[in-house]
Write a structure and sequence with these properties.
The complex is a heterodimer of chains A (146) and B (138). Chain A is built from five helices and eight strands; from the N terminus they run βαββαββαββαβα. Chain A is α+β, with helices and mostly antiparallel strands. The longest helix of chain A is centred in the C-terminal third of the chain and has 17 residues, at 125-141. With 138 residues, chain B is an alpha+beta fold. Chain B has one domain (2-135). In chain B, strands 2-3-5-6 form a four-stranded antiparallel beta sheet. Chain B is elongated. Classes of the chains: A alpha+beta (146), B alpha+beta (138).
């Protein structure tokens, strides 16, 4: 299971990831695109925290760490809402029962990554690294401007 | 029949969600107050007792003298940012107790527990896009 990297510089705020996520998760989406000052947009979803507060608050064993992934099992959820309050980023939802990003397990690549037309979402570590280096390089040449 | 320990009840959604007969209902005055009502039930079922995170529920023998409905109400704690009520005090207390204290603040040192999930997302987006917004501001 791999992480999803977000490149905010590339996000065009089209909300395709939101729609795609809703489509594959029975109408309950786990991505939220926020627009900042009409100048940038950020897709927000589960960080799959290493020390995941939601798994600590969950008393029924529905939220657990499964390697890098923070996994959720619907049949153990009571819908109490503790995880929603325990998520520092507000990306666990409770709509009767809880729902959150599952990285589209067991699929190899999450649907949002496959869908993003701007390649702002990727699960390629090397690509994320390459872009960050290129940006830093350009910034150095342009004297701090990015 | 259900007996409720009103001092222990967190005001969460577990029992009202899980009751197979809708004997437990929840009413919410958006952003202000939450009320949970347990109707007198004769079922031989203890799902709510089993799943209560606070162990606030117990089963007692059926009796005619107890009231038809037990009701517990909670004032919702207002979000530090938008001031709308979003959770009961006991739910937030539970989060403070179960999540290690070093995880209860964000990278700027601000505690996020008293901020509602909607504003947490807003703050996160603002923080993440700060640099990009600045570079595009000219």
């Amino acid at each position: 299971m791999m992480r999803v990297y977000v490149d905010i510089n590339r996000c065009i705020g089209c909300r395709s990831c939101e729609v795609a996520c809703k489509r594959v998760h029975g109408g309950k989406g786990h991505v939220n695109v926020h627009i900042s000052e009409d100048r940038a947009s950020v897709p927000l979803f589960c960080h799959h925290c290493e020390e995941a507060a939601c798994t600590m608050a969950c008393y029924s064993g529905a939220l657990t760490k499964d390697g890098e992934r923070t996994s959720f099992s619907l049949d153990k959820c009571t819908g109490c809402g503790l995880c929603r309050l325990a998520c520092p980023f507000g990306v666990v939802w409770t709509d009767k029962l809880a729902h959150k990003c599952d990285l589209c397990a067991p699929n190899e690549t999450p649907t949002c990554v496959l869908t993003c037309p701007a390649q702002a979402l990727s699960n390629d570590y090397e690509l994320a690294l390459k872009r960050a280096r290129a940006r830093a390089g350009r910034a150095t040449i342009l004297g701090g401007k990015r | 029949m259900i007996q409720v320990d009103a001092n222990k009840c967190l005001g969460c959604f577990a029992c009202s969600n899980i009751c197979p007969n809708q004997f437990i209902t929840r009413e919410e005055e958006e952003g202000k107050r939450r009320t949970i009502r347990w109707s007198k039930c004769k079922e031989e079922c203890d799902i709510c007792v089993e799943f209560c995170p606070a162990k606030a529920l117990t089963l007692i023998p059926y009796s005619d003298s107890t009231p038809e409905v037990i009701e517990v109400s909670f004032d919702l704690v207002p979000c530090e940012v938008c001031k709308k009520g979003f959770a009961t005090e006991l739910l937030l207390k539970r989060i403070r107790e179960t999540v290690p204290s070093n995880l209860q603040t964000d990278s700027t040192g601000r505690s996020w527990v008293e901020i509602c999930p909607f504003c947490r997302r807003e703050l996160e987006a603002e923080m993440a896009s700060k640099q990009v917004v600045q570079s595009r501001r000219k």
